[in-house]
Design a protein that fits this description.
Elements (H helix, E strand, L loop, with lengths): L1 H7 E6 L15 E2 L2 E2 H13 L3 E3 L2 H4 L5 E2 L7 H12 L4 E6 L7 H12 L5 E6 L2 E2 L3 E5 L2 H10 L14 E5 H6 L13 H6 L4
Parallel strand pairs: 1-4, 1-6, 4-5, 7-10
Antiparallel strand pairs: 2-3, 6-9, 7-8, 7-9
Helix pairs in contact: 2-5, 4-6
Length: 198
């Protein structure tokens, strides 16, 4: 089982956002003594055994393997597509760099849920909706993402239509010891202060 896990899992941190509301690049923002990028990479490596970065290679090359968007400036869906296009693993964890409360235990929980079924996407859903930037994607979602991107449709949730999903609801998350707080995004200085990251 250990060998299967190592070969079937991969992890990707999306670090290509414009950070317009923050006023500075969130990727390198200090949060509780560590950059958001360092936090996300550590969590991803612990859960999947690997952690590649999807973003600008010039800015991020010193931090490890960097994958650039095939479809630039198309938001997170473009980043998910790029990750899956570059992956050789069946199960791929996608994590936005600005979600500092996601733990390796949460990602491992989602991996286990994905590996236990045949869904294309295993995605948490909280009171605020789907959490597609902390989810597990089978490699075949790449084709779905590419069709949407070529059609100019960039919303990740919309690409889930008609796909077999494994939705991890609030109650299941709570039963495993997780909560809505785990999915908090740090999009602004106010968010950072409210989350206790300063």
């Amino acid at each position: 089982m250990a060998n299967k896990t190592q070969t079937s899992r991969a992890g990707f941190v999306l670090a290509g956002g414009k950070s317009s509301r923050m006023g500075t690049d969130k990727t390198f923002l200090n949060f509780a003594g560590q950059t958001l990028l360092d936090r996300a990479l550590a969590v991803m490596k612990a859960a999947s055994g690997s952690a590649a970065i999807v973003g600008n290679s010039a800015a991020l090359a010193t931090f490890g393997r960097v994958i650039e968007d095939v479809f630039p400036d198309c938001g997170p869906l473009g980043g998910i597509h790029a990750a899956l296009a570059a992956s050789s693993s069946e199960f791929n964890a996608i994590l936005a760099v600005d979600m500092p409360f996601v733990s390796h235990k949460l990602l491992a929980f989602l991996f286990a849920a994905a590996e236990d079924g045949s869904a294309i996407v295993t995605v948490p859903r909280t009171r605020t909706g789907f959490q597609p930037l902390c989810a597990i994607y089978r490699r075949e979602f790449c084709a779905t993402a590419e069709r949407a991107l070529r059609a100019g449709k960039y919303k990740v949730d919309a690409a889930f239509a008609n796909l077999p999903l494994r939705i991890v609801e609030d109650a299941e998350l709570a039963g495993a010891g997780f909560s809505e707080k785990d999915f908090v995004n740090i999009n602004s200085p106010e968010d950072r202060r409210a989350a206790g990251g300063t």
